[in-house]
Design a protein that fits this description.
The complex is a heterodimer of chains A (about 375) and B (about 110). With about 375 residues, chain A is α/β, with parallel strands linked by helices. Chain A has 2 domains: about 325 residues, 3-Layer(aba) Sandwich (Rossmann fold); about 70 residues, Immunoglobulin-like (Sandwich), CATH 2.60.40. Chain A has 11 helices and 15 strands. In chain A, the strands form 3 sheets. An 8-stranded mixed beta sheet of chain A has the order 3-4-2-5-1-6-7-8, with helices on both faces. In chain A, strand 7, helix 9 and strand 8 form a beta-alpha-beta unit. Chain A is globular and about 75 Å long. The two termini of chain A are about 40 Å apart. With about 110 residues, chain B is mainly alpha-helical. Chain B has a domain of about 60 residues. Helix content of chain B is about 60%, strand content about 5%. In chain B, helix 1 packs antiparallel against helix 2. The termini of chain B are close together. Classes of the chains: A alpha/beta (about 375), B mainly alpha (about 110). Chains A and B meet through helix 6, strand 11 and strand 14 of A and helix 1, helix 2 and strand 1 of B.
Amino acid sequence: MRVLLFTGKGGVGKTTTAAATAVRCAASGRRTLVVSTDPAHSLADAFDAPLGDTPAMVADSLWGQQLDTRLRLERSWGDIRAWLLDVLAWAGVEGIEAEELAVVPGLDEVFALADLADHADSGLWDVLVVDCAPTAETLRLLSLPDVLGWYVERLFPVGRRLNKVVAPVLGRVTSLPVAGDEVFSAGQQVFDRLEAVRQLLGDTERSSVRLVVTPERLVVAEARRTHTYLSLFGYGVDAVVANRLLPGAVADPWFDRWKAAHAEQLAAIEEGFAPVPVLRSELKPTEPIGVEALAGFADELYGRLDPTSVLHRGEPLRVESHEGGRRLVQALPFGARDELSLARRDDELIVSVGPYRRAIVLPDSLRTRQVAGASLADGELVVEFS
Amino acid sequence: MTAEEPTAGRRDATSAPGVEPLQAAARQLIAAARAFLDAAEALVDDPEAVGRVVEAVSETAQEAARIAAAAGRRAARAAAEATGPASPGTPPGDDEGGSGAVRNIPVD
């Protein structure tokens, strides 16, 4: 079972690349499901075939699905939402305002992500190809299992225990609706689903992220940051797709400066992301729409490569032993010292890069040791333990 | 190497070091007081419930004490930093914290 996630800046060709990869996987006989988690779905347009919220057959061994995040929100958040509506009604907020307040923004996307784990566990598929939302949303989404997990693991048990004891007393002194155990059960289920997703996507042998870029400065800059943040959360990037390269056959002098700019950016991509392989696809005369055109796109992109193989094996996080002690190495490609901060709290190492923060639970071999120093070099944060 | 709070560069004149954790501790204490009053009221009707509530209040108070202690350590450290950079001779072990304290680690 392989999970391939495609992300990148808006408009770079994520959907086309994901759909083409799925076509190629299915052509080799693997049961392939391509799923769009982008609320602005365009997967059906890429296949020129109708797709809905349940997997629909597109070709032999190939199925497509555009997740309806709203439905999943209703299913998973129903009990919690009902309690929130009671609380809001008690506070004098009712109607549409209460309905809107009872839904945490962005939560619908979380449940879309949780569906991936269900698909992976179903045994129905050999390959799961995911057409993700643009980078910012995807990063927020992929960081959520880690971030929410941190809070839930610490606050949830205490809150639930306290609630069980205090709720009967509160019921006598106030009319405030107190959360029942079904609310905590629903919360626990939400967390369990997120944890399943984290386990699946954090397993670099099962899951890989492929960054789609066009050879433009802003796009490449965003892809670099994305690579840093994905590594921080332990997701493995196994390839970069350089899309819409101007073909060498274009001889019109009007394109000369564009071609030079593309060549410069392509060189920067190759050099900057090495040893991660860069797959190339030239700009097509027409949009590659439909299974046949997508198969052609995939042939050019992958050549003889098997798209389901792990194209690059990196280790986002590892522990090394040496004579003086041990070191924890966190991959942070393109990471800059001025946006990095590091702290320790008991058995956790808290790494912050730009707007993202991850609490790494130290393994037993490091838990009792003291930090002797830390350095950032060659895209790796090295924390020495004495 | 100089130990720095991650937000040191963004701190404005109105936010004294350690205020936020102290506010959090205060909220915890208020929550504990409320729960205690609830327990007192419950005593009238159901003496058995009191034991369970007191246990819960105790847990909340302990959490508040822990937050307050952490805030105190942080404020002391911030005060020390305000007078000058950390001593270069500070042993590495000084970065470690116990009982929930967050210790910043300088990155070379």
